[in-house]
Write a structure and sequence with these properties.
DNA-binding; Tetracycline Repressor, domain 2; 12 helices; mainly alpha; Repressor_TetR_C; transcription; 2 domains; Arc Repressor Mutant, subunit A; about 65% helix
């Protein structure tokens, strides 16, 4: 027998619209993951029947495309400025991508499963490669540098997103405290570095600041001294 108390409350008639559907889709993807995204699950999250969702979108693929466009529209790429050092502009570009992926890690899955129709990722890649060339790298070096920066950005964003998910599941809002508790029980004679550097390791689990620390080191190694980085 179905437990009626576990059902989501029904939405008032006439309140459903495309914006509400997309907001619920983003929430479902972020918290349940792409594999759990179905029209039925989305309808349940909205508190409506499945056919009510179809009155605004033709199907799952159309919703996913709209979600992807919506999320990419949130990325504020810095305006191109030939007077700025390439390092500074590239840093801003990477920060924008990191922020998007760390807040919405399902974007990677959406890009992998649904071909890009617009300029979302293409525009970023063109800008980044152009900046690397303007910084003095030749073609092969710019391609390798772009790949290295993107690998780091994607990995760091997924690390941050995973940490946030684990903390939510464990009911722990402080990643530093979680690490301190984990290392407190380790024998110092066997793990001298982990126990000795526990406070420093805990302090490094701070999202964007830690990402920027690694990004600056990577860009400096690739492009040299970042004068006027900003």
């Amino acid at each position: 027998m179905t437990d009626r108390s576990s059902r989501r409350p029904r939405a008032p008639r006439g309140t459903l619209n495309r914006d509400r559907v997309l907001a619920a889709a983003v929430d479902l993807l972020d918290h349940a993951g792409p594999d759990a995204f179905t029209m039925r699950a989305l309808a349940q999250r909205l508190g409506v029947g499945t056919m009510a969702v179809y009155s605004h979108f033709q199907g799952k693929d159309e919703i996913i495309d709209a979600v992807r466009d919506l999320l990419f529209a949130e990325v504020e790429l810095p305006p191109a400025d030939a007077r700025r050092p390439p390092h500074a502009e590239l840093r801003e570009l990477c920060r924008a991508v990191y922020r998007l992926l760390s807040e919405h890690p399902s974007v990677l899955h959406l890009l992998a499963t649904r071909p890009v129709q617009g300029d979302e990722g293409t525009l970023f890649a063109e800008r980044a490669l152009g900046l690397l060339r303007r910084a003095g790298l030749d073609g092969p070096a710019a391609a390798r540098a772009y790949t290295a920066v993107m690998q780091y950005t994607v990995g760091a964003a997924l690390w941050t997103a995973r940490g946030r998910k684990v903390r939510a599941a464990q009911g722990c809002d402080d990643p530093a405290e979680r690490l301190r508790s984990r290392f407190a029980g380790l024998p110092p004679d066997r793990y001298p570095c982990l126990t000795g550097l526990a406070p420093q390791l805990a302090a490094a689990q701070d999202g964007m600041p830690q990402y920027e620390h690694g990004l600056d080191a990577l860009l400096t190694g690739l492009l040299g001294d970042p004068d006027g980085r900003g």
